[in-house]
Automatic annotation (TrEMBL):
Gene3D superfamilies: 2.70.50.70. Keywords: Carbohydrate metabolism, Cellulose degradation, Disulfide bond, Polysaccharide degradation, Secreted. Its EC number is 1.14.99.56. This is AA9 family lytic polysaccharide monooxygenase.
Amino acid sequence: MVGSDWAYIREHTRGYMPTKGSGILENDFRCQPGGATGQNTDVYTVQPGDKIALKQAFGGTGMEHPGPAQVYMSKAPSGSVKSYDGSGDWFKVSEQLLCASPSNGAIQTDAWCVWGEDRISFTMPATVPDGEYLVRAEHIPLHGAHDGQAEFYYACAQVKVEGGASNSSSGSAPSPTVKIPGVYKVDDAAINFSIWDSSLTEYSTIPGPEVVSGGQMRGSEDGSSDAITNVTKRSLARGRGRRMARGQDE
């Protein structure tokens, strides 16, 4: 583990409570209340291929809420991420879904890839241009989603990418991109999905955009594989659910 508490992660004032409902439409949904700037947060230098993780705070020993996890990045337009408020474009570099069959009620517990883990990890894609970025890791527990009460836990780290995307800091961000807030709507099927059906065979709608080329997908919509695969290109969207064209398993 690198650094002390909040060394590279923007400190916020929400504590360990989740965001729910219309809170996903507020600017604080980017990096939490109090996280609009990172003047007192250090910037960690990484290179393509480095494995990065944001660990649970407040003494957390493992996520035991059912739901997916993802990691978004946003490049600081001025060059310095410390003053960046996250109002620019975001792209998804990691998506973690089901790593085991969701049948017989397992979708309510440990079928999810991140169940029991105390951090959200990803590998920095080579497709990300040099520069300073916010890295936003997010977990979405779905146990209350059937009542419109999906929970969002998230935080932002500050990193500097060196040696990426042809060593160019002027390169454009990978696509597709989204805004935060705006990445989810309150009535999105993916965050109103009921896990309380023992006959479920897949998590058929996935929150947010597709993972960019060079990013990673862990698990699958139906839990048939727990592998981490590299995304090599995007397929056409299938409603709000998507299937990826993937590269070689890691």
